[in-house]
Amino acid sequence: MRRTFWQQWSGILFAVPWLIQFVLFIVVPFAASFWLSLTDYRFRDFPNMIWFENYVDLASDEVFLKSIFNTLYYTVFHVPGVMVIAFFIAILLNQKVNGMPLFRTLFYLPSITAGVATIMLWLVILQPNGILNQALGLFGLPGPRWLTSTQWAMPSLILMSFWTVGTTMILYLAGLQGIPQHLYEAASIDGAGHIRKLWHVTVPMMTPTIFLTLVLGIIGSWQVFTQALILTGGGPANATLFVLLYLYRKAFLIFQMGYASAIAWVLFVIILIFTFIQFGIARRWVYYEYDESS
Amino acid sequence: MALLSNQAPSSSNVGQPVQSAVTIRGWRARILRPVWRLLIYALLIAGSAIYGFPFGWMVRSSFMTIDQFYEDPPPFFPLPPNWSSYTEVWETGPIVWWIANSTIVTVLGVVVLTFVSAVVAFGFARTEYPIRDALFLLVISTMMLPQHVTIIPKVIIFRDLGWLDTLLPLTVPMIGGSAFFIFILRQFFRTIPKELDDAAAIDGASPLRIMFTIIFPLSKPAIATVAVFSFIGNWNEFFEPFIYLNTPERMTFAVGLRFFQAGMWEQPQLHLQMAVALIAVAPIIVIFFFAQKHFIQGITLTGLKG
User: Fold this and answer.
1) Per-residue model confidence as pLDDT tens digits over B196-212
2) pTM of structure
């Protein structure tokens, strides 16, 4: 009996390291975070329960609402933009021509080096007298004061995000290479040209990957932090204050940790809702091959 | 499939004489295909130029003097190049410390995080117990959990443990592996034929032995891909170390860069910033150029298709 119990359960030992980490660094902080959001904790004194007061305050906190608006503004342009650009590049990188490994590396490089170092670089590129404005000047276009103008700061960040499309592009490339060649042959026999093949074979077969990148893209854009911190610090006049940056200010600059925890939870619920909605409407447009065969 | 065969034949070929179809095909092969290839090359080269340009600009900017940034217009390329940024940078900030700290975190990330993830992934791919699949679902679902939800309590916990301003909050959680890596490796391990395990098991090999002598050696490309991911991820990681580390000498490189940009100077020293930034991305570029062939194949191969 003991032996069979061992045989039945011994495999779980492999998961023990992950389980320990899960409890200590995910479950406990996750629960604590919700509890903190119901208190007035300020990092020093003992927290007092104030129940949902933080959430009520958030609803009328104009800076918070502004940060939600900013994040939505960014999402609406960043997510579709990255998807279209990455799709186009992936198709280009899926052609059979010489030197492809080099091209793939070049397009992927900005994404794997993405971080403080490459973000700082954009401070130089986007200077009022910087290279981008000089290039615009060649076409007779007046260059804006990108990062220091309330109107252009957010477009600057969106534009910059189109430089780091590598992860999405690699997922599309993997998806494109997974499309069975016989579908294209069948389409050729049926007389379809490049455009029709793209629209009637490639796109439907890619919808699961497109869906994945859409979900990940939206989750990611609700967590924008580093770019805004380095380039604008949330300014000018809170024009690029993202939700996570506001959370950081509240939690770690003025130590209103109870209030910041409430922000964290609202953000978490927003992400959850967005993800659920997408899974809900996915069946209307995502094409799963095995649906038909089974 | 169904979509295609229903629609396609009716529209394009109908009404065209067979002969003209043949000539069109010949014309296509001779003229259109080279033009098409040329177009693809043109787009690839233009695109690479756009995506590679900022790196070139980083190099160029590190050769400037600070005054040249404020000339109107600044020089396209400073002549003669000012090499002194690269010597100055080592004297001004605790960069050596940043490199050392990031190296510690990154090496542990490559070795420990990859190894533990592989072991956990092996359990999910190759052993059986009642709640295995539910547990795996739990692992995947933690990937969706944004890290900001847990950051505030983690800071409090690490403060009470006396771990703030040390590398421990970054390295100790590695003992549990990473959900993303566990997922990738588990997917790959499942593609290895089960018969190999069974044969070894009949010969009396324990699961641990099967893991070390069969599964891991056969999974070198996938494990290498994960190791590169881990290198890049840990070297670039900013949010959590930025919250935990305060003393300049204890910062990782990414946090140090931020300190260099915002905490060290009265006036921004753009040329020095670009020089440090270049030093910071150099290891990643080097690693990636060595690993890129395996890396991009590895991603395709590990079934990251969603």
Assistant:
1) 888 998 998 888 999 99
2) 0.89
Distance CA B147, CA B242 (A): 13
Query: Which contacts qualify for A186-191: CB closer than 8 Å, 24 or more apart?
Result: A186/B1, A186/B4, A186/B5, A187/B4, A187/B8, A190/B4, A190/B5, A190/B8, A190/B9, A191/B8, A191/B9, A191/B11, A191/B12, A191/B13
- DSSP assignment of A241-265, as one string? --HHHHHHIIIIIS--HHHHHHHHH
Q: Which of B48, B175, B306 lies closest to A106 in CB terms?
A: B48
* Distance of alpha carbon A266 from alpha carbon A264, whole angstroms: 6
B297 min Cα distance to partner chain A (Å): 9
Q: Is the pLDDT of residue A135 over 50?
A: yes
- The span from the CA of B233 to the CA of B241, in Å, is 12
Residues 41-70 of B with CB under 8 A from A: 41, 43-44, 47-48, 51-52, 54-55, 57-58, 61, 69-70
| Number of other CB atoms surrounding residue A220 within 10 Å | 19
pLDDT at B20: 52
Contact B272/B89 with Cβ under 8 angstroms?
yes
Q: Any CB–CB contact under 8 A between B195 and chain A?
A: no
Contacts of B184 (CB under 8 A, 6+ apart): B121, B222, B225, B226, B302, B304
Query: What is the ipTM metric for this complex?
Result: 0.91
Tell me the pLDDT tens digit for each residue of A226-269.
999 999 999 899 999 999 999 999 999 999 999 999 999 999 99
Tokens linked to B208:
């641990």
Which residues from A are below 8 Å from B296, CB to CB?
101, 104-105, 108, 170, 173
Secondary structure letter of residue B173 according to DSSP: G
Q: Give the tens place of pLDDT for each residue, B92-135.
A: 879 999 999 999 999 999 999 999 999 999 999 999 999 999 99
Query: What's the full length of chain A, in residues?
Result: 294
Taking the C-alpha atoms of residue A97 and residue B122, their distance in angstroms, rounded to an integer, is 38
d(CA A34, CA A44): 18
CA gap A242, A221 in Å, rounded: 9
**CA B77 vs CA A121, B57, B84, B238, B243: distances in Å:** 16, 9, 16, 31, 37
The DSSP call for residue B143 is H
CA dihedral A111, A114, A119, A120 (to 10 degrees): -130
Sequence-distant (≥ 6) Cβ neighbours of residue B280 within 8 angstroms: A115, A116, A117, B253, B254, B257
Q: Closest CB to A134: pick one of B73, B120, B306.
A: B73
3 state SS of B193:
coil
- Write phi, then psi, for B119 (nearest 5 degrees): -65, -50
Best to test chain A binding among B149, B175, B209, B216 (most A CBs inside 10 Å)? B149
CA–CA gap between residue B129 and residue A116 (Å, rounded) = 44
